[in-house]
Amino acid sequence: MSGKKVAAVLIPLAAIVVFLCWYFMRLCLFVDTAEGHLAVIPINDAYEFSFRTRFIHSVQKTPVEEFFRVDADTREIILTSTRYQSFGVGLPFLMSDGSFSRDGDFLVMSDMNRRMPELDLRPGVSTQLTLYVGEEEFPLYELVPLGSLVRVHVGKFYERFDF
Known about the structure:
Blueprint (H helix, E strand, L loop, with lengths): L2 H23 L1 E7 L2 E7 L7 E7 L6 E9 L4 E9 L14 E5 L2 E5 L3 E3 L1 E4 L8 E4 L2 E4 H4 L6 E7 L7
């Protein structure tokens, strides 16, 4: 076989191998339940990738939003800020929690920088726990039984497969 024919075969083959390596090694946000993956969302820009949760506080009965971003280097999830309407159990309020401000009817705690390897969520009665990733909305309180564990974490795309 001539050198040109070998190159004509090897170059496209090498391109396919490079593409598959990139595709399977890219970072994704996994939303997992005991039954498996609820969602696997590619992280296209790992240094700008963010998501949020929204729920109704179980005691105060007011809305709470939590804002997260992904650290691509450590594969950690970082709680960056929380937005809520009233003080209540489990809500940040100390100066050591971050920077406190008001936004209309809402209280905002920003600059929180709380790092975690994964985020565990459990939809509860009347909490309407919802996960927002980009334009996608995951009403967890409708998608899984109340009290079920939903784990959000960062991993490589190939990790979605059980070998």
